[in-house]
Structure formats: C-alpha cells, structure tokens
Specification:
- Keywords: Lyase, Metal-binding.
- This is Lactoylglutathione lyase family protein.
- The protein contains 4 helices and 9 strands.
- The strands form 2 sheets. Strands 5, 6, 7, 8 and 9 form a 5-stranded mixed beta sheet that branches.
- It is globular, with a radius of gyration of 19 Å.
C-alpha cells in the first residue's frame, strides 16, 4: 500500500505475564471459556530459529527460556500468556494513574454469573456492579481481578452500544 491511509486497525491480541502458565490456562479456559490454541510450551534463547531470534529482539539477552501459551476469545482476539522463571510472581500494585496498560475488558451479558465464577476460583470483585444509564439502558460494568492479580473489566454490552448516543433503549 503506497498511499498513506488512516483506517481503523483491528485488535489482534494481548500479552499477559502470569506466575503459573498452567494454572492461568486452566482459569482462562474454564472460567472465561477462551479456546486453547497452543498448550504451554517452552521457548529457549537461540539464534538459529525465527522464534528464538524474535524473542531475543523483544526481551534482550537477559533470559534463557520461558513458557508461552496461546488462547483466543470467541471473537478471535488472541491471548498470549507468558511465564518467566525468574520474573516477579506478584502482580504490580494497581495504579491506573501511571502511564501504561491500565486494563482490558471482556463482554458477557451475564455479568453476575461471570463475577461469581471468578471469585469462586480465587479472583476478586473490585467494585459493585454499576449501570451506565440506570433506568434507561441495561448496560452494566464491573472491575474484577483474576487469581494472579491482573485487573480487568467486564461489560454486559458491546463498546459501541455502551457509548453511542441513543443506542438500544429499552
């Protein structure tokens, strides 16, 4: 493409570092329903493979190996899980005021059931379920935390419906 065009790019995947990749794959597949595309496997630092060289480019030289797994949401968004043997095993303090990735969001019309499942499997509900437009639209949201301390949000409706003016009134 020679001409410089601006158009909406699609979201491909998100990478999440977890302390235990097998437990994370189990949680995200059983509780979130995400598909396992590639079971956890080990990547070693080596220059003679494409993946080894790519990882050296990304992570630098100060590593020897790590585990990786690939999952997918129902709409094809990738979830790339990493576990590094010498990484910090605790989630960083939740601080949305600092620059960086703040959260990701999933969508489930049965927000109450999903939150109950997350909590029953070691996660946390960080706030009460809130309505965006009480008595007008049925859009709900809530921040939760997985068992590894990763904060994310749940919406009951699509991003477009939630924020577009006049969309979907009861």
């Amino acid at each position: 493409m020679k001409k410089e065009d601006t158009y909406p790019r699609s979201f491909s995947h998100i990478g999440i570092t977890v302390p235990d990749i097998k437990k994370a794959v189990k949680f995200y597949s059983e509780i979130m329903g995400w598909y396992v595309i590639m079971e956890p496997s080990t990547v070693k630092k080596e220059r003679d493979t494409a993946i080894g060289q790519m990882c050296i480019d990304v992570f630098g030289e100060d590593w020897e190996e790590f585990e990786i797994a690939h999952m997918s949401t129902s709409d094809g968004i990738g979830i790339e899980l990493f576990t590094f043997p010498h990484g910090v095993k605790e989630a960083p303090e939740f601080n949305p005021f600092n620059t960086g990735l703040f959260h990701f969001c999933v969508q489930d019309p049965n927000i109450e059931l999903l939150i109950d499942k997350i909590v029953a499997h070691g996660g946390k509900q960080r706030m009460p379920i809130r309505e965006y437009y009480p008595n007008d639209k049925p859009y709900k949201m809530c921040y939760v935390e997985d068992p590894f301390g990763i904060v994310f949000e749940i919406y009951t409706h699509s991003y477009e419906l939630t924020y577009s003016s006049g969309a979907y009134t009861e």
